[in-house]
Amino acid sequence: MRINVIGTSGSGKSTLAKRLASQLNVPYIEMDLLYWRPNWQGTPDEELYSRLEKLLEQPGWVLDGNYNRSRDIKWRNVDLVVWVDYGFWRTLRQVTLRAIARARSEQELWPGTGNRESLRRAFLSRESIILWSLKTWRQNRERYTRDMADPRYQHLRFVRLTTPQQVDEFLASLT
């Protein structure tokens, strides 16, 4: 099984992707881990795509992340796209609480990068994950709705989950 879990930052896609990978006993692949370098520098697309393609050669995986510019690579051999589409207020609450928790714990977000969330970055910066979530929530919803209807992706199976109860039911259906 090859699954791409998508959704706005803070929606819960990483949590679901990790649970899916564990339940299905397949590798968990995190796009943010592939992309982010030390000091919040991104990986150039050519290198990112090369690393991604190598990882996706495995017979099964759960891929966590949007990175729409890599969609052709991600969706080339994907079996299922799972869209975590919680409402605006729930997503905003989740991303805010996560940013606060990460800032308090000072946890490194991706090993070896030294990248950590801070309250300043979360609330007072143009690079704020909260601001990013605010700006992209509606865009993502429109994009994924179009993707589900796009003839180019008719071969894909989409699952849209809009509540935590639906997430639990979906996970239970896989056992």
TrEMBL record:
Membrane-crossing residue ranges in chain numbering: none
Domain ATPase AAA-type core residue range list: 5-54
Domain of life: Bacteria
SUPFAM superfamilies for the chain: P-loop containing nucleoside triphosphate hydrolases
Family matches, as Pfam families: AAA
Name the UniProt record assigns to this protein: AAA family ATPase
Organism of derivation: Kosakonia sacchari
Organism classification: Bacteria, Pseudomonadati, Pseudomonadota, Gammaproteobacteria, Enterobacterales
